Amino acid sequence: MAMSTTAPGDNAAKLAENVVHFARVLRRAGMPIGPAKVLDALQALQVVGVERRDDFYFALSTVLVDRHDQQVIFDQAFELFWRDPSRVQQSQQLRDLLGGVRTPLATESPVSPRVMQAMQAMQPTTPRKAASESPTPEISFDATLTMSRREALHTKDFAAMTPEELAETRRLIATMRMPLPVIPSRRSRAVLQGNRVDLRGTMSRMIKAADGFVEWRYRTRRLRPATLVILCDISGSMDSYTRMLLHFIHAVSNSGSRVHTFLFGTRLSNITRALRDRDVDIALAQVTRQVADWAGGTRIGACLREFNRGWARRLLGQGAVVLLITDGLDSDDADELGSEMERLSLSCRRLIWLNPLLRYAGFEARPGGIRAMLPHVDLFLPVHNLNSLTGLGAVLNAAGHRQSSPGYRTPYPAGELHGNV
Amino acid sequence: MPRHPVPHSVDDVAQLLASQQYIAGRHLATTLYLAMRMGRPLFLEGEAGVGKTEVAKALATGLERRMVRLQCYEGLDIANAVYEWNYPRQMIEIRLAEAAGQASKDRLEADIFTDRFLIKRPLLQALDSADGHPPVLLIDELDRADEPFEAYLLEVLAEYQVTIPELGTIRAAQPPLVVITSNRTREIHDAVKRRCFYHWVDYPDKERELEIVRRKAPQAADTLSREVVAFIARLRGMTLYKAPGVAETIDWAAALAALDKTVLDPEAVQATLGVVLKYEDDIARLDAETVAQLVGDVRGEVRDEVRGEAGAGWQ
């Protein structure tokens, strides 16, 4: 720090002010730093002293950084901020300087115009534009001669829907309540009749009554929601289903707190935080900003490898159910795909594969990629219309229960588990 | 027995740890010093095997305080973490009192719920600083416990007091030194991290790792130690499913020294690969050719290093 001619007391006050400015800069960069932390930072600097620059950096880092992924932002901000004391005066310049330090929201990657239009069409302000672009809905009336309109909507394939039907399907999906998988936990709750004796409750009963009788109290296991991890393919071959699937995933994410979502095409993106917003349009707009490889190529093996290496051990502990939504048509070779699927199936409790290609009643697993993936999957189900989505709810509920013969996964051949399309 | 005084500076902390054969980077020493001086818990996160638990042990032995260890697992509850009443003994006591004719309820309650029948578990033991010096409380692998336990822990860490309904509130005369570790198999709630000082323990650089191996596995020859450290550094650069940690480096150096090796050779490496890599996929990636290649590179690197140091010594 430059030597100045002011008194030491002034220097201390200036330092405190600078630290407060620095905290504001970090806050603007996305790190949650409240006033309590700023006070802690000042106290830490008093304790450690400011003689050495690295001690100064370590002290501030200790107090202000809460998570490992915040360290990068902190380092960049520290480097820019504490370079030259006179810069602090020009806070406007600093704000511009740190414009590039923001979290991924700021990087606008070119998004496919088709998806942009699709996302725009979802806004409630432009319903008429959508109506004028779409073909007239007379086709759907032909199909409703024998079934009610709603039932027709439930069995219609997403790829074949008109924009009005898509809008209605979206409304139906938004009102769906997905039962998330539950698994037994190691905690217990009191019950009248059970198989585990609750000694503490029995004791307190004995003491309260003190009449010489011992009345047993029982406990039983509690159930808790299992973690659900959704891996969704957004490549070109899945393009017609992507929109509906994103709505469905948003509905599922908002049903519970232990749902993590990843999108992959040519690379893997974690969109869990982007989907947090309750409003589906805002959430999906954030997702569009974050993800760059819409409707592109497919590299399932590489993306699964990245998930296995970087995320599997952080998310799949304590019994997780993985939903893999992809058609399995991969542009890479099949060997890597097989080994990555094996690693994924060994790390999670249940692996469920949802494939829109199962809309074809006579589907046979011919492509090499699909054949490599199939043996490692617990359930192989279709996902092309509303019925399959509602049926998924029952499946997810049962997915938490332990299999009858542990360690042996039964691969269901294609076509057996789903009804006639 | 004279106790070690609380460290007065970051250098003091580094020296304290070094005296227990734990070589810490300056960042960790600063974090530890701040946690001790400002009375906050220390939260250590990092991959398995980088020395998170060892810090607490070194600190406890260095400061000559007793260490209380709470190993977390799923379903950890108050009965196993804080306290439990000794029910069988209490029931016997009730029966005896009834047999002797003293069945007065209040008297019974006063007799039953006393310290005599209280089993103290780690958290309660840590609050007890009867000998004047608060202990070091190590809460190991908090990510294995579930969210309800984290919420309870937050309460305890805020005030360092525990409420037992039958006895009252038990407060710590002096707050213990708390070290929490996590392997990141689950994201710990932000509230817990905010209460603590957070530190990510990373793999050490080559100089520090060499120093660690020299101290922890002194029986290994110097060249062997250098080659082991260089080999492990290259393994960490490869894309393995689980990169080896510091614990694996120390174990490997000790294992090779036990086999009377003074330098690395491909056969020894293949034979002892199970000490370093714990996943079959990773072991399969290191076939004979890759191992021979790596050993050759590493030996050349160490030879240049030693030559360079010797040359610098001549100046």
Mean pLDDT of chain B: 90
H and E order of chain A: HHHHHHHHHHEEHEEHEEHHHEHEHEH
Largest sheet of chain B: 5 strands, parallel
Contiguous helical run count of chain A = 18
Give the strand order, joined by hyphens, for the main sheet of chain B: 2-5-8-1-9
Give a count of the beta strands of chain B, DSSP E runs of length 2 or more. Answer: 9
Oligomer: heterodimer
Note the beta-strand portion of chain A.
Answer: 5-15%
Measure the end-to-end span of chain A: 74 Å
Folded structure, characterized:
Chain A has 421 residues and is an alpha/beta fold. Chain A contains 18 helices and nine strands. The longest helix of chain A has 21 residues, at 8-28. Chain B is α/β, with parallel strands linked by helices and 315 residues long. Chain B contains 16 helices and nine strands. Chains A and B meet through helix 2, helix 3, strand 1 and helix 11 of A and helix 2, helix 5, helix 6, helix 9 and strand 9 of B.
Helix-strand layout with pairing:
The complex is a heterodimer of chains A (about 425) and B (about 325).
Chain A: H1 8-28, H2 35-48, H3 53-64, H4 70-81, H5 91-97, H6 113-121, H7 127-133, H8 138-143, H9 149-155, H10 163-174, E1 182-191, E2 196-197, H11 199-209, E3 218-225, E4 227-233, H12 239-253, E5 259-264, E6 268-270, H13 280-290, H14 300-310, H15 312-315, E7 320-325, H16 334-347, E8 350-354, H17 368-373, E9 379-381, H18 386-399
Chain B: H1 10-19, H2 26-38, E1 42-46, H3 52-63, E2 67-71, H4 78-81, E3 83-85, H5 87-99, H6 105-112, E4 118-120, H7 122-127, E5 136-140, H8 147-159, E6 161-164, E7 168-171, E8 177-182, H9 190-195, E9 197-201, H10 206-216, H11 222-237, H12 246-258, H13 266-271, H14 273-276, H15 280-285, H16 288-314
Parallel strand pairs in B: 1-8, 1-9, 2-5, 5-8
Antiparallel strand pairs in B: 3-4, 6-7
Helix pairs in contact in B: 1-2, 10-11, 10-12, 11-12, 11-16
